[in-house]
Amino acid sequence: MKHYAMSTRTISDAINTGGLLVVAKWEAKPSEADKVAAILDQFLPEAQREDGVKLFLISRAKDDPAQFLFYELFRDEAAFKAHQDSAHFKTYIAGQALPLLSKRERTQYELL
Questions:
Q1: What's this model's pTM, rounded to 2 decimal places?
Q2: Cα(3)–Cα(58) distance, rounded to whole angstroms?
Q3: 83 and 52 Cβ atoms separated by less than 8 Å
Q4: DSSP string for 32-74
């Protein structure tokens, strides 16, 4: 996972206009972590190109490679819904990655 959405903007630019922040934590099933990472490597650039995505980062825990952390900033609720309805979300996340997980948590935040 070496792609980042901030090629022409700064983080300050992304957060200054608010938005919906989604933080997700995943834990892959035993022996599935590398498969999940490969799926996310394909998914990430697609997600970052979405019109309503202001920032989209995925990281992998250094001390437990089965754990992944998502930090996603969307323009608004409609952009988040469009993200979940996208073909790449349905293919990579719903269709391929989720069955490989033992745990998935998501929390939504509003920026202060």
A1: 0.87
A2: 9
A3: yes
A4: -HHHHHHHHHHHHHHHHTSTTEEEEEEEE-SS-TTEEEEEEEE
The angle at the Cα of 36, spanning 96 to 104, to the nearest 5 degrees, equals: 80
Rounded CA-CA distance 46/28 in Å is 21
Token couple for 27: 């834990």
First vs last C-alpha separation in the chain: 29
Cβ distance 24 to 93 under 8 Å? no
Give the confidence band of 22 by pLDDT, cuts at 50, 70, 90: very high
* Residue type at 21 in one-letter notation: L
Query: How many distinct structural domains can be found in the chain?
Result: 1
* pLDDT tens readout for residues 26-61: 999 989 999 999 999 999 999 999 999 999 999 999
Q: CA nearest 21: which of 64, 69, 67, 62?
A: 69
CATH code for the domain of 69 = 3.30.70.100
Q: Which domain range does residue 60 map to?
A: 11-110
